Predict the structure of F-box protein At1g12855.
Amino acid sequence: MPTPRLAFAKATMCDYKLVWLYNSDAGRLSERFTECEVFDFRANAWRYLDCTPTYRIFDDQSPVSTNGSVYWLTERYNGETKVIVFDLQTETFRLLPSNPASRSHPDHIDLCILDNRLCMSKRKRRTMIQEIWSLQLSSSEETWIKIYTIDLRSCSSSWSVSGRVYSTWTRKHVIRPCTPVAILKNKEILLTHRYGEGLVKYDPQTNSYSLMYNHLFYRGVPYFQSLVSHI
């Protein structure tokens, strides 16, 4: 059974919301593919949204949020994986027009936030090469820029395969891409696995890795400054 995954996000400087977007049980038999509930901390109440996406989300991955928006991957439709965007202020959904991993299965993609930008991490099919793309925003368009290419063959084999999980979609074990956690001041990248263990530091200049933290149940969590004082 998929695990319910809520997005806890900052809508404005003083406003936080919980967003729960999930696939409707009747989605394949009716026009309502998804359901959405929002918890407003100021009103201290849940409410349903009437206008929801007409794409089922890939509910084996948690949503990510930045700059007043929340993002989800969709299930694959006509050979494409799309990205759904939810605006926390207007409480409306839309699709990103395109993404560099649209032809990949969502099992091989991770969404993450780096430097307050939406990023997409994609493992090339049948390889140990992983690409990280950043969404650049301007007044007229949204453009994906490749910011890193990582060769996981130089990483410790015991860590690089720790993202191996059983996919209910493909009915076989797949190796999930590494998930970037943060970019350090010296341009090194912190990496983990969605279902793996530990935290490593990757140096793109030397293409080398160093283990920072090794624990079976390590999970990264988002941080919100002065959360209680604003509610």
Remarks:
- The two ends are 33 Å apart (CA to CA).
